[in-house]
Amino acid sequence: MTDTAGGVGHSPIRPDARSKTDGTFDYASDLRLPGMLWGHTLRSPHPSAAVRSIDTTAALAMPGVAAVLTAADVPGANAYGLITADQPVLAADRVRYQGEPVALIAADTLDLARLAAEAVAVDYETLEPVTDPEAAVAAGEYFRYQPVRLGDPDAQAAAVVIAREYAVGMQDQAPLGPEAGLAEPAPDGGIRLHVATQWLHSDLEQLAPCLDLPPERIHLEMSGIGGAFGAREDLSVQAHMAMLALHCGRPVKMMYDRAESFLGHVHRHPARMRYEHGADEHGRLVYVKARIVLDGGAYASTTDAVVGNAASLAVGPYEVEHVSVDAWGARTNNPPCGAMRGFGGVQTCFAYESQMDALADALGLHPLELRRRNAVAQGSKLITGQTVDARDPRRDRPGGAPFSPLADLLDRLDALPAPAPAPTARPGGSGDTTRGEGVRRGTGYGVGLKNVCYSEGFDDHSTASVELRLEDGERVARVHTAAAEVGQGHWTLQAQIVRTELDVDRVELAPNDTRIGSAGSSSASRQSYMTGGAVRAAAVAVRALAAGRDLADGPVEATRVFRHRATKPMDPVTGQGDSHVQLALCVHRATVDVDVELGLVKVVELACVQDVGKAMNPLALEGQIHGGTAQGLGLALMEALLTDGGRVQNASFTDYLIPTALDMPPMRIELVENADPDAPYGLRGAGEPPTLSSTPAIVAAVRDATGLPLTRVPIRPEHLTTGRLP
Amino acid sequence: MRVTMRVDGDEVAADIDRPGESLLSTLRDRLGRTGTKNACEQGECGSCTVLLDGAPVCACLVATAQCQGREVRTVASVPTVLRDAFVACGAVQCGFCTPGLLVSAADLLGREPDPGEEAIREAIAGNLCRCTGYEKVVEAVRAAAEATADGVPRVPARSHLHHNQWINVVTIPQGGTGNGEDTP
Amino acid sequence: MTPPAGFDFHRPADLAEALRLLAADPEAVPIAGGTDLMVALNYRRARPRALLDLTGVADLREWTDEGAAVRIGAGVTYARVAAELGGVLPGLAAAARTVGSPQIRNRATLAGNLATASPAGDGHPPLLATGATVTAASAAGERLMPIGDFFTGPKRSALRPGELITAVTVPKAAGPQQFLKVGTRNAMVIAVCSFALALDTGRRVLGTGIGSAGPVPLRAGEAEAVDLPWEAPDRFGEGLAVEFGRLVAAAARPIDDVRATADYRRHALAVCAARALRRAWAEAHPEGSVRCG
Ligand SMILES: Cc1cc2nc3c(=O)[nH]c(=O)nc-3n(C[C@H](O)[C@H](O)[C@H](O)COP(=O)(O)OP(=O)(O)OC[C@H]3O[C@@H](n4cnc5c(N)ncnc54)[C@H](O)[C@@H]3O)c2cc1C
Ligand code: FES
Ligand code: FES
């Protein structure tokens, strides 16, 4: 490996930077073709109803309306899903959540398509929705139940016991780019789709049976993606615009507005969790019991895998010998939930970190000290029985104890200088609610443990093809993958790897599409590891092929499929099994100023130490930490989709608030390179862990300032003031 | 109804079909000028920020017909030095917020050539970004403000090169195998 | 809703023309900054056949100093109120600074805020606290409305069909003014509740305005009547501030909604009102040994 300029470890300019700063980068919503129609989705206003009839006559009669399609027009199977095909492309006789697609309209303009949708008459018989996930579980309505059993928690005596219930609200990914795409009928009767998706090949697999087309007649091309965070894992516009385009024989574009976007993609599972931690008088964990109910909403999406993560990571990076975890993913008539950055790790992290703080408080220990005493180390076992592999023979703990990557991060976090005592801005911002009145400062810590790549025995792989050629005497490389550049900088990373492996300067990136094998999803913090691994393998192969050959005779090319080492499913009864490939750790310290009388919070500073294995691109890593931390801040302090009887109450940026520049504080970051010998370049997936640990750190800081237990996120001002006298 | 206006220096005409058609949809859907982004049409995200007669506004909240004879400037008119600063500082991830942020930042620098951090945050508070947490955006605006006379943004020294106090990369030396060539 | 067959977009250059056009085309919906109206149009909550653009109306564009008061033309934006009127109308200017974002303030007008008549409109509490007057005009002539009579219900006002707001006349500050707005984000947020206070040290009068805590913006009459120790300012004590807060909270008629609970709104109003009064009193009596905090 050479230290090539713009190679691994550097922070070269993004290949998409120019076009993203001059307005020429084409996002899915920017696409258009001559003669194109606009598609629009009519959605159910009811969370649960029988569909008695749909009358499309009036809409079809409107001039400029080209088509109105319903379930009867779905060419193939009327069901899709990432793991289980249980979600109708268009509801046939039953709607199970508010916003479920019922009919499609194609018209000359988007405005007209929307007007026509209002002219479609759907006769619903409303039914009582199931909205309480606990009741659903009790009635056996759940997508997955996953227990974890270790030792005998019921037989243990503990010096301190903390038992509390926690709740996490329904967070939305809120990527700024709305769902959008363009479908073009192909001359062979097939279809070409330009989409912004996290996983082209999964879209393809799901689409083929619905469209009743052989996969080779469906061609997917990635268009520019305006953020994803899990919101683009499931299908949105894909099948709908394909149906309209095939039906009309014309290109069809679809684009959601923000209100539709809130209804048109899955969210982070809201959770209710009951935790009981027992510890000895030194603060060592004796046992943990947890009961976790995640609300999966109406359809399966990725709830299965989210439940697996919630269960296997339920205790966090702490050693404990006696554990009992029960985790469910309930089926209700609430909005479907699925992937969002942190994927099942976020909810439990808030609970277990809150528990660790409560234990520290009860024992009079510093929160960092309590965590150090329980931190996993080289050779310790997770609650699934999986062994922690964090070899570092030269850095054992005092007394010959094995190296603990967590204790190391905590020491580093502790060593970061504290922010200045004088605040730059007050809680309440320009609302001028305080000029210091009622303001108290608090500090808190959070630790997050996230699995990287797909777990539980999934055949996780990625494909890359690399070509090396001579052009005007210069060696030029070209990379082709199907991996989604969602903003994280994956294109940059691919080019860096090729530069490093082939010692070239110029690297071209072929468009991401389905002409090459699957790259898997840009999710689970896996793309650097997986597609990075595939690109590296292909580049290494090209290097070998090129050795001793004259490139003037023609280009050299290699395609490689990369797999990480196999994982195992969790045992359905005990939860035991080596279910994860790689684990990543991140720790946060939050400093907040709280106006304790009004319950308003200003986060003053966030400090973060993250083990990235290898800082492949430090600039991009910082960006991931900033952005992931901001989303954690949002969950801690403001973000929740609120439902009432299954209906979303705040599907707009007016009432679903995400942090602004005046909410996010400056950050202090330390990247630690504790290489994973099994991973390409030693890297550790980095996109998700900061989203886990920032939430509990901020909540802990607010607790520190207010003295309140705070068991729900997002914290609302009234949680901080109830019971307080003015 | 025909509306004529200047967009990024060009005289343009658009035929709108309803009185309330927004400047944003006219720019994007009628004039094909898609550099200005649509992320909410509620005035909340700032992705559609343009300068209307020099003042930053949300194009989604301006009726096109209100722009007759007026001057609109989009991301296409933003000074290169500011763009370069965004690129060099890592202020661009998915980039969907970027055109709007650039217009807001350009307006700030036009009014206030040497803004402090708080002034920058105030100026971009109407521009939501879901990817960056804003830190590098703030940095980029500073870098542009401190640009050299020949238009090169002064990008803060990054620690992976210089170990400044803000960002540290610490490499833990590995015993044994390490991260060599022979990994998968 | 069906698409309009033909449509109109009126661009009057002066007020007389605007009123004539409105009389001739009563369906025409006025549009100023568009920051309320365009959201409704974008989301198809309204689909007017005609709009009447007020941004070109020269007579509405300026504010004028009328001696004891400032007359703010209907077309004056919040950005200008914040930048230009902070000295004479500190309460309203403070409210203006909290409206939306820079982009919103560059377009949003005080008159548009009033015409929308949302209980959460940030301009309303300072206008109530200072006893402003709304001027409305129609082809039939002009009339003045005390601000207290203007709001008739959630998003309803005393404005009649065919009328435009032409100006809002706000008495100049005769003492300290305060505006506090509670929101769950540090910027760009609709008020959970807000409170404005105007202390007239010459006339020894206290004015109040409550936002986002009732079907309409409210005054707190009983709170305005608290017995302030004008003769012995340093006798202003914590008890008085708290009592004032309690009376303000009691005057509110809040509801539970997605932004906050009614209880929280009452609580927050009590806190904000007490703070506002302490600050204002301390500012009015800088020499005295007023305990503040
Ligand atoms: C993102 C965002 C954030 C916001 N934040 C805030 C906030 O923090 N605080 C707040 O108070 N408001 C806020 N608003 C609401 C809005 O900006 C204000 O109500 C603003 O003052 C409206 O003024 P305008 O000129 O834009 O009105 P327009 O949208 O042009 O008009 C609003 C209504 O008033 C009528 N109208 C306008 N002018 C007149 C007139 N002269 N005579 C008669 N009728 C008239 C119109 O017909 C229309 O019905 C926000 C809006 C957005 C989109
Ligand atoms: S699209 Fe205009 S502000 Fe969001
Ligand atoms: S870079 Fe993605 S929203 Fe800002």
Notes on the structure:
The complex is a heterotrimer of chains A (726), B (184) and C (293). With 726 residues, chain A is α+β, with helices and mostly antiparallel strands. Among the domains of chain A are: 17-24 and 461-563, Aldehyde Oxidoreductase, domain 4 (2-Layer Sandwich); 31-128 and 178-225 and 232-264, Aldehyde Oxidoreductase, domain 3 (Alpha-Beta Complex), CATH 3.90.1170; 395-451 and 578-721, Aldehyde Oxidoreductase, domain 4. In chain A, strands 3-5-1-12-9-10-11 form a seven-stranded mixed sheet, with helices on both faces. In chain A, strands 7-15-14-13-8-26 form a six-stranded mixed sheet. In chain A, α5 (200-211) links the parallel β10 (191-195) and β11 (218-222). With 184 residues, chain B is α+β, with helices and mostly antiparallel strands. Chain B folds into two domains: 2-74, Ubiquitin-like (UB roll) (Roll); 78-147, DNA polymerase, domain 1. Chain B contains six helices and six strands, in the order ββαβββαααααβ. In chain B, β1 and β2 (10-15) form a beta hairpin. In chain B, α2 crosses α5 (135-145). A five-stranded antiparallel sheet of chain C has the order 4-5-10-6-7. Chain C has a three-stranded parallel sheet with strand order 1-3-2, with helices on one face. In chain C, α3 packs across α4 and α10 packs across α11 (262-284). Chain C has helices at residues 15-24, 37-42, 78-84, 90-98, 102-105, 110-116, 124-130, 147-150, 221-224, 238-251, 262-284; strands at residues 8-10, 29-31, 50-53, 63-65, 69-73, 133-138, 141-146, 151-153, 156-157, 164-171, 177-182, 193-200, 205-211. Chain C folds into three domains: 8-52; 61-171, Uridine Diphospho-n-acetylenolpyruvylglucosamine Reductase, domain 3; 177-283, CO dehydrogenase flavoprotein, C-terminal domain (Enolase-like, domain 1), CATH 3.30.390. The complex binds flavin-adenine dinucleotide and FE2/S2 (inorganic) cluster (2 copies). One FE2/S2 (inorganic) cluster sits between chains B (92-97, 129-132) and A (176, 227, 487).
Can you tell me the residue ranges of chain B where pLDDT is under 50 for at least 5 consecutive residues?
A: 159-169, 171-184
* Main sheet properties of chain C: 5 strands, antiparallel
User: Structural class of the helices, strands and pairings of chain B?
Assistant: alpha+beta
Name given to the CATH architecture of the largest domain in chain B: Roll
Strand content of chain B: 15-25%
Distance N to C terminus of chain B:
64 Å
Percentage of residues in strands of chain C: 15-25%
In helices, the fraction of residues of chain B equals: 25-40%
Number of E-state strands of chain C: 13
Which structural class fits the helix and strand makeup of chain C?
A: alpha+beta
* Oligomeric category: heterotrimer
